Each structure stands twice: as C-alpha cells, then as structure tokens.
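Fold it.
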Amino acid sequence: MPRRVRAALAPLAALVAVLAVAGCVSVPSAGPVLPYPVAQQTSGQNAQNLQEIAAGPVTKWTPNDIVSGFLTAAAAIGDQQVARAYLTPAESRRWNPSWTAFVYKTGPYVENPTYPPPSPTTGSQKGGKSAAKGGKQGPQQATVVVDGNASASLSGYGSYAVASSSAPVPPQTFELVKIAGQWRISAAPSALLLTQGQFADDYELRNLYFFDPNSLYLVPDPVYVPLQATTTSLINGLVNDLISPPKDWLAEATQTSFPAGTKISPGGVTLSGDTAAVDLTGAIATAPNPKTLLAQVSAQLLWTLAGSGQGATQVQSVELLVNGQLKYPGNSGGDPVERQTEASYWPATGASATFYYVDSAGYLCSRDGVTGKQVQIAKIGTGYSQVAVSPDGKYLAALRDGSLYIGSVDGPLVKRQGSGYTTISWDPTDNLWTMNGGQILTFRADVSADSPEARPITAYVPPPAGGQITAVRIAPDGVRLALIINSDELAFGAIVWQQGARPGLAGAVRIDLSPFNVTDLTNALTAVTWYGSDDVITLGGPGSTLTEYPVNGGTSTSQYLDQSVDSITASSGPGMGTDLIAGIAKGGMLWAPNLTGAWVPVAGKGVSPTYPG
C-alpha cells in the first residue's frame, strides 16, 4: 500500500552509507507522516539499519565543512567519539545530546559562515588588509547557522512530538574557533539535527506503559530511543519517563502510578541477566495504599522494560526496591522477581471467546467460539447494518437505516433521537461511541432514553485538514481510538475527559490526535477494528482487502478476500489465540485464525458479527 514519501537530503560532508551486516533497510508499505523504524525484532536492538560511517575533520576544512561533518558524525550509529573530534576540548566535555533531536522534512541546511568584524589589533591601518578579509592569520572565530523545515522533535528521553506552526524549531547556531590553524566547534546545540532518513536509521520504537483514568488497564505510549544507547542508559531513561511522563498526545488521557516526587536511587536501574532491579526513593516510600501502589508501579516497569509489543530489551522480569529494600508486589508469591505472567495489571487486548451476530429470524445470538453452540438471546428484528455489544456483555447497540438503537442485551432496544448515525463502538465503562455528520458522539447506556443524561456528548476533535471523520473505533483500553478520515486516511487519538469528568460519568470530552497516521491510501476504507492492544485491521477496496497496521508504525500486512465482506471483528490480537470473523455482504460469516490464515465459512447465516467492544 503506497505512502507519501517525504524525504530530505542535506549536503553533509564525509558521508559514507553502508549496509549493516544484517542486511538492508526494510521499507514499510505505510505509516505515519514521519518515517518510523523498520520492522521490529523479537530480541536485542534493531539490526536492520542503513548506517552512516563518519570521518573526522580534514585539514583546512572551512567552518561549513566542519559543521557538515559534525552533523553526520553526531548522527552516526554507535560511538560518538568521531563527532567530538570536531569540538574544542572544552565543548567536547560539555556536549551531551542525550536523546534529544530535531527531525527535518527539508534540511538541515548549513548556511555560509559569518565572521566578527576585525578588531584594531587584528586589522591593518588605513590602506592595509583587514584580518577578516584575508590578513596573515585570517579570522579566528566564525558563526554557522543550520536551518530547515523541522517536522518533529524528540525531547527528554525519547518522547515524540510534532512541531507546530506556533512553536517552530528556530535556526540552530554553531560557534567556531581556530585551534592551531584548524576550525573547531566551540558551542554546539544539545539536540541532534537529523534528516528523516537519519531519524529512521538511528532510532527505534519502544512502548512506555501508563494507566487508563480508572487504573484498570495499561496503555502503550510510544517513544523513540536511539540505537546507540546502551542497555543501561536505555532502561534508566525509560524508567525516568515513567516517573515524569512525556507531554505527548496521551499525556492527559493516561496517568502514572509513580507518586510525584519519586526518584531513581543513586545506584540507578541495574541489569542482572534478564532481570532489571529498579531501586526507587523519594515520595514512593511514604505513599498511601502501598500494596496497590507497588503492584501498579511494578506492572508499569515490567511491561515497559520488557518492551512488549515493539521489539524487546534484554529485560524479561523486574525486581522492585524502595530505598534499597526488596518489595513483593503483584502475584509473585513471595518471589521478588516479577514476570509478565505474574503481573497484576495487563494491557487491554479485547480478548473474548464469545462473539455475537443476528440470525435470519432476527434473534441476537452468541457463540463461544466458531465451533460453539448457537445461543439465541433476544429477538431484535432484522435489517441492522451493525450491532455492538459492550465489553461487560450487558448492553447492545444497533444501526438500521441510519437510526441508532440502544438497550440491554436481553431487553428491548430503544431508538434514540436523530438519524444519520454511522459506526458504533463501546468502551469498557459502558459508553457507546458513534458518528453523526462527521462528529463523534458518546451515549451512556445505563440511563433511560427520556432522561436528560441520555443526551449524547459531542467530543471535540481538531478538524482534520481538508477532511471529515467517517468512522471511529474505541480501543479495548477505552483511552485510544482509531479514526477513518475521508476514507483514505487512518488516524489515532486519545480520549480526554474534561471538567473533572471521568469515564462513565457525564462531562465534556475531547480527542487529542496522535502524530502517527497512515495517509494517501489507495483503498477506500469502510471499517476498522482493534486487533489486540497495538494493532488495527482495516477493511477497504479494491474488493474486500483487509490490512493490519501496527498503531505506532511498522510494516503493514494485507489479505484480499475473494468474497465481498462488509465487516471485520477480532477476538484479541497477534499471538493471543486470535479469531477473526468477517461478515459477508449477502449474509453469512467467514472465520480465520489470523489475518493471513485460511478463511472458511462459519455455520449458519448470521449477519453483523461482532466481538464485544
């Protein structure tokens, strides 16, 4: 599936591009506006990268050459000692780019140097040559500006943010001096200045895990980390981000369990084998509800450091300490080492063996797996284009000719006011989300239709540039949602309840959009479903094409079905015993164990199949 290519090449000196030993770069077929890392591996750091091998400064290089060479060397994977060769000794000791970077859509461009005006001691008398214009020694100081159209920035320990017109990246200034006749940089920006290609080659994706507002589920929050980071610096950086969450698109939709004022103990986070020992100090030592708190902190650490869903560090388990004292959180059974199988909290995957559909007689039916026995629940009639059952199995919503009906699963459906509704999806707290006229609306299920509280809340969404939202699907965690815009763009957002509201209560709500999206699709998208906690599957043309997308970037996978289908639903996600069911446009259902597996008919003539959610 094609994607818009937005690459920029800067005139960088001393650049030699070579293929890494593991092979050439894997090019994703679709993804966010910025390039994202190549397909993730199951262990270790990402090995499939186009690496830049930088050379040190050359005698008689100009200030422009020095800055260009430095940009290449600073971006090179691995040891940055070559980059320090471009710096004065004092600046080499000071310069510490950490994980911060500016990513340029066009540029970065190295501009011509400027020199200070000659002083009376360096310039000649009237009629002579000034030093700045080519005297015996020539200029001893220079300023070089690097500019371009920056498309994003990485700040803190790798959190991703899109640069906006209200906060553009300013030109970056380099100061240079001559040392023994050779130009060296005496003051360099702390941030790395990267082309989009360098960014894709030098960084890879990791997930931080934070809690939803009800502290029920862990929500993955993507951050980029540099490949040159050592394992020790990587795990310490990720823990710091859990303590002080990045100010990104999920910041106001999620929360961390780490009390404000918590710090990493001076010894830092250490790794012994596959176990990370995390020693914390500060406010966590005196926080209330220590049993619950430590279980939540341990779960955030475990899922984040194990890198679940986006490649992996060496970490497979964690050991939590507070002021040097071992803690026993979660379900460890007295063992201070906690693994994912023992965690008290998990990412929400939407896992369910039971799916629902409407049979030819108009009954809402359920089955415990495709081989399970059909159970007729309640007669709701026929002609529905979609049905959706809440994750707790209590409530049903249905669409027929643009009208919306909501009720108990085993009770009557009640028509809500208005028409023109499209797509329906439940969150874990029994809010129904739907579309009407390009607006996202949410209804409470547990109030009567004639109650003032039954009126929908309109979610504020920043207007898509030149587009209209046509479909919405809530993630199993109830925090994130997938959006289809103009039938040719897949976008994501975070649900932020405002004015003191919480999920499940009345109040204003807005959607904060993610920087990750898939644009310029040739398939006309008609539906989207979540596929576990980190993937979605879209349905669109030509014909009936199903495509899996990792939510935070990665290689997409497509499957063309030889029958016309009008819906798709998933029981959980990749590697979790997934079942996929597609609704055939003329009635009937197809089942597959995964997206690329063999699709076979499901017994019966059910329509509008759906897993809860």
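The helical segments are 63-75, 81-84, 89-94, 196-202, 231-243, 290-305.
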